[in-house]
Amino acid sequence: MKAAVKHNISDFKEYLKSNDIYMEENIDENDGSVHFSVGLETEAGAKIQLIAAFDSENPTVDIYCFNVAQVPDSTNDILHVINELNTSYRFAKFTLNKKNAIDISTSLAFSEPNFNPALVFEHTRMLYKLANDEYKNLMKVIWA
Q: 3-143: which CATH architecture?
């Protein structure tokens, strides 16, 4: 793992600790990448998993919000809504995964030494907000 990446992970852990934010740290034994995760239920009722994943070789952070909504059958209606959401939101990408669940993701790339742990957390929080804001609209289409 590159020194800059180790420093970024350390900075993010310190940011979480200093702000009393809990996210579980996990290390991938295969590639050494590190991710921080937390399971939450939004005010709107979505049971999501938020993840901030640090690549072991590059100063990038991929941020995910898994399981925003479960789609019983892949329909054109929900794919149309996902396309509309991807047009509406500039920084976030909505996808339908192999298990027919809707996920949201974004990526941040930092040049050394310009890592900003607050920005990583803010983007993680924004994915939570998107999941909360769009959950009811997604469920209307799914239940229709």
A: 2-Layer Sandwich (3.30)
Provide the token pair at 136: 């009811």
- Say which residue the tokens 């027919």 belong to: 100
pLDDT in tens, 84-135: 999 999 899 999 999 999 999 999 999 878 999 999 999 999 999 999 999 9
The one-character DSSP state at 121 is H
3-class SS of residue 108: strand
Q: How many CB atoms lie within 10 A of CB 41?
A: 10
Instruction: Please give the DSSP secondary-structure letter assigned to residue 51.
Output: E
Cα separation, 51 vs 94, whole angstroms: 15
For the chain, give every domain's residue range.
3-143
pLDDT digits (tens, 9 = 90+) for 126-136: 999 999 999 99
CB 143 within 8 A of CB 69: no
Identify whether the C-beta of residue 73 lies closer than 8 Å to the C-beta of residue 80. Answer: no
